[in-house]
Amino acid sequence: KQEVTQIPAALSVPEGENLVLNCSFTDSAIYNLQWFRQDPGKGLTSLLLIQSSQREQTSGRLNASLDKSSGRSTLYIAASQPGDSATYLCAVRYGGYQKVTFGTGTKLQVIP
Amino acid sequence: GAGVSQSPSNKVTEKGKDVELRCDPISGHTALYWYRQSLGQGLEFLIYFQGNSAPDKSGLPSDRFSAERTGGSVSTLTIQRTQQEDSAVYLCASLLDHSTDTQYFGPGTRLTVL
Which of B7, B36, B37, B43 to mutate to test the interface with A (most CBs of A within 10 A)? Predict the structure, then answer.
């Protein structure tokens, strides 16, 4: 069974801190991995997508890394801001399957 | 341009009633997903449509759940004889094609079964 785990489930940090969110997956034969953010009462917004052949992707203050051999991805957020407060989910797609497996998310609170 | 829209945004129904949830994907997007997000749970895949191909229904939890996509555009998810455990947020996502593989999500429909 393909499982995706995110730890911690919740994280609270003061504004300005750099932070790392973790995503682990059991089956390393992934096609790609995607990070989303979800704001309360809203759908998901794609942040970064890493193909299996890539090791990292960057967008602004966000950097996502992928280590297939260890079954891990991290999302690094630099200089956190209150507007970064949201739930962050990672999602893994496996080759040959259109189904995407989501983690349960990390709820981030950035305190002003 | 318009994103993915879903209606209704909230639905409260009584146990045993049927409900129909609607998803309007982004125009031109060939693929469409339905997911369910229960309180404290991750997103659970329900069904996937790709063009004119037969849908992947492997995530539907029971035969009370069905979905269709008419004309390759609008999709409806129908839940018959609703149960309290069906209470969740139902999310729809569309995707242009798998070369980009970025899903665009709607705001969801919050279903409450009393």
Answer: B43
